[in-house]
UniProtKB/TrEMBL annotation:
<dbReference type="Pfam" id="PF05368">
    <property type="entry name" value="NmrA"/>
</dbReference>
<dbReference type="InterPro" id="IPR036291">
    <property type="entry name" value="NAD(P)-bd_dom_sf"/>
</dbReference>
<feature type="domain" description="NmrA-like">
    <location>
        <begin position="12"/>
        <end position="258"/>
    </location>
</feature>
<dbReference type="GO" id="GO:0005634">
    <property type="term" value="C:nucleus"/>
</dbReference>
<dbReference type="InterPro" id="IPR051164">
    <property type="entry name" value="NmrA-like_oxidored"/>
</dbReference>
<comment type="similarity">
    <text>Belongs to the NmrA-type oxidoreductase family.</text>
</comment>
<keyword id="KW-0521">NADP</keyword>
<protein>
    <recommendedName>
        <fullName>NmrA-like domain-containing protein</fullName>
    </recommendedName>
</protein>
<dbReference type="InterPro" id="IPR008030">
    <property type="entry name" value="NmrA-like"/>
</dbReference>
Length: 324
């Protein structure tokens, strides 16, 4: 049984890491080919994926017929749909879902977002968009005219712990983690690598109907293993770094300014992060979901202290010079 995988948005962190895993053991022996779609062929990560054996195809959105032909030309039987960091994220993603249907790709994995089911269109519009994408993707299950709904899977990825790296400058210079999440509620940041691990297992898993029957049709929610408030987050970081970091509860307006100054992400990605913080403040993220990770990988997700240890240099505050 062949497995030819097409991954969208491979120039982004999520797509790159999933593709990198599939091109490495133990996954590479289960996958025949990996095609990466990119909106930016000149991105730094692209040449690295090519050197690992991926075929890179430029993704030019806007024409549904051309998009369908492009997917057919990849000869993929499996697609990993990752909404791109782009001002027209929804339009591009919906076009990809529809093109996948017309191309008749039987195995479809959508990377969605934790919290989209609790988000409101008024308060967290960027989060709520993922519900529309999930609905559109899963609607193919009842469409007899296409084989695309035959083997679907959705991973609702938690808030990436890597987003906390945006506040590394404050951690280093001030010894603070400034987040607009309030003081009363909690969330469970997940390491990006953990989400990529689950995706790689799903994309390489095989069963009589496409994806492995353990994964096929699943709605997988993947968060980190620790539920923490802002103060508990700072405590975990302090423990891992062997230093003292303090949590600072900042306003949404200040958070927006910090993101504007310190993040080179697309505007829609910044809006998504702010929407998630808003969801935390509303008390709608007070849960963990690690069962899917454990069942799929057989391992335990990355502990928050281990995450901070991995990024020790980025977060560790600079020692102040002693006055003699």
């Amino acid at each position: 049984m062949s497995r030819n995988v097409c991954i969208t948005a491979v120039d982004g962190q999520t797509g790159f890491l999933i593709a990198e895993l599939l091109l490495s053991e133990p996954f590479s022996s289960k996958v025949d080919s990996v095609v990466g779609l990119t909106l930016d062929p000149s991105a730094a990560k692209i040449s690295e994926l090519e050197s690992l054996g991926a075929k890179i195809v430029e993704h030019k959105p806007g024409r549904a017929r051309i998009m369908t032909k492009l997917l057919k030309d990849t000869k993929c039987d499996t697609i990993c749909l990752i909404p791109p960091a782009h001002s027209e994220k929804m339009e591009i993603s919906m076009e990809l879902v529809n093109a996948a249907k017309k191309a008749g790709i039987p195995n479809v994995l959508l990377i969605s977002s934790v919290g989209c089911d609790y988000a409101s269109s008024r308060n967290q519009p960027r989060l709520r968009e993922f519900i529309e994408l999930e609905s559109l993707t899963l609607a193919a299950k009842g469409d007899a005219s296409t084989s695309t709904g035959h083997s679907p899977c959705v991973i609702r990825a938690g808030f990436y712990a890597e987003n906390l790296l945006l506040y590394a400058p404050q951690a280093k210079s001030e010894g603070t983690l400034p987040l607009p999440i309030g003081k009363n509620h909690k969330f469970a940041p997940v390491a990006l690598g953990d989400v990529a691990q689950v995706a790689a297992h799903v994309l390489s898993g095989k069963g009589p109907h496409g994806f492995d029957d353990k994964h096929r049709g699943q709605m997988m929610t993947v968060t980190g293993p620790i539920l923490c408030s802002g103060e508990e987050l700072a405590t975990a970081a302090s423990s891992a770094l062997g230093t003292d970091l303090q949590f600072e509860d900042i306003s949404s307006a200040e958070a927006k300014r910090v993101l504007r100054q310190q993040s080179d992400s697309d505007e829609t990605e910044k809006e998504y992060i702010l929407d998630y913080y808003s969801l935390v403040r509303e008390g709608k993220t007070n849960y963990i979901a690690t069962t899917a990770f454990h069942d799929v990988t057989g391992n335990h997700p990355t502990q928050l202290t281990d995450f901070f240890k991995m990024y020790n240099e980025e977060f560790r505050p600079k020692k102040k010079a002693r006055r003699h």
